[in-house]
């Protein structure tokens, strides 16, 4: 269920992803910086160890939205490397 939803979401946004985001995201997963904390009925919670601080990434199952507390995501509403890393970790992309 979660997998199908994300694949649809991904196809819409993947073309907008910069190489930098993709590379950073892959590195975060390779270095073991991503952990899935909690999977509830409505949300999935992840934590990602960033360069300066730890970020909280949340996947809302209801509206299929990913959110991260970093500046890049909250200010620009763009998919950040932390969200990308979580998608990668969950094998959604
Ligand atoms: Zn982020």
Structural class: alpha+beta
- Provide the succession of SSEs: HHEEEEHH
Shape call: globular
Largest sheet: 4 strands, antiparallel
Please count the beta strands (DSSP E, at least 2 residues each): 4
What's the alpha carbon Rg, rounded to whole Å? 12 Å
Model description:
The protein is α+β, with helices and mostly antiparallel strands and 93 residues long. It has one domain. Helices cover 42% and strands 26% of the residues. It is built from 4 helices and 4 strands. The protein has helices spanning 2-13, 19-30, 71-76, 81-89; strands spanning 34-39, 43-49, 54-60, 65-68. Strands 1-2-3-4 form a 4-stranded antiparallel beta sheet. Strand 3 (54-60) and strand 4 (65-68) form a beta hairpin. Helix 2 packs across helix 4. The site of zinc ion has 8 residues, from helix 3 and helix 4. Residues 55, 68, 70, 72-73, 80, 82-83 line the site of zinc ion.
List the helices and strands and how they pair.
Blueprint lengths: L1 H12 L5 H12 L3 E6 L3 E7 L4 E7 L4 E4 L2 H6 L4 H9 L4
Antiparallel strand pairs: 1-2, 2-3, 3-4
Helix pairs in contact: 2-4
Key structural traits:
binds zinc ion, 26% strand, 93 residues, globular, 4 strands
